Each structure stands twice: as structure tokens, then as C-alpha cells.
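ok here's N-acetyltransferase domain-containing protein:
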Amino acid sequence: MTRYPFLELSVETPMLQLRAATDEMLDELSDVVRAGKASADPAPYDDPMSFYEADPDLRVAKWLQAIWRGRGVLNAQSWRLFFVVVADDEPIGMQDVIGVNFTTFGTVTTFSWVSADHRRRGIGHEMRSAALHLAFDGLAATEASSEAFVDIHGSNAISRGLGYEPNGVEWATRHGKPALMNRWRLARDTWATQRRDNIQLRGVEPCRTLLSRL
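and the structure:
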């Protein structure tokens, strides 16, 4: 192996690509973060969150630092794969796939955002579909989970539309204030009933092999 396989991994759908978040890809996306287009109202993220920083340069710096830290903490049990979402050759957001106690339970969760310029076009649904295909088809996950504040209607609708089942609620903070989150759960068998045949994975096998050894 002469390259790091997690930086060569990609997922492609008819609408978009998830490309591994190399430094070059992050640099292309940083203007969206600097412009504040990764955030929304009501606020979708729990604390702490770099996107809540008012200073644009500090916002970008903390966002990049979090991704770089996440790259370094990666083993078979706990991992986070970062992707830049590209549509029409333009970087427009991020989609992360996160292994949680993966060797024990086979569970993944997801995190995503899309630029304010590209919302309400079905991109969030397509991003999540791509992430689930990677998790279940590529990495043999057994279940996927998701969380969203109860007033983040778009994210909750995506989970519902993709077959997730309600899995309770929990409290979290955003901007230091308590807020209630919906929890969702999608079993592999449920995903399999709606498995798509037009999503392509590239570079998965070297990642799977290396993960099993870390």
C-alpha cells in the first residue's frame, strides 16, 4: 500500500458524489464554511460546534481541526469517514459515516450538512442514501442510527423517508441551551428491502482490509 485508502474512497449516485475529504477537497469547500452557509435556522447542531463561531477565519480553522483530529482516531471499533459532497462538479457540503462500537454491534451513525444555496432539492436525502449504501453494502454494517433536534424537520423527514424507525428522544444542548432530539434506527434488513442498484462504491476493499487490522 503506497497511499492511504480512506482518502481514495468515494460513493457515486446519479445526483452527486461523496468524495473523500482530502485537504484539497476541504480547501475547495472552505469558502462555503467561511460564508456561514453550513448553518441554518433553527440551529441544527449540538454543542460544541465550530459552525457557531462568529469569526469566519476561526470558524474554518476549528472546522478543519475537528476533521484532522477525526482522521487520526480511527480503528476497527471506532472510526469516522469524512466526505465532501460534490454536485455538478461543485463542493456543496459534507457527509460523514461514523462507526460506533462497530466490531461489537456493527452500528453506524451519520452526520451531514449542505450549503444553504443547495437545500430543498432532495440532496440531503441522496447524501444519506449514499452513506447508507457505503455502510451496509460496503462495510457490512448491521444498523444505522441518526439524531436530529425535533424542530429540524428536514433531517427528521429524511430519516422517516428512508425507513428509519423512531428510537426515543434525548436531551442535548445547542448554544448552551437544552433542546430535545429525536433518535432514529434503521436495521439492515429494512434497508435491504429498498436497496438501490444505481449507487457505485469505489475504493472500499482496501479500506475494509485496513480497518480490520487497525
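+1. The chain has a mean pLDDT of 96.
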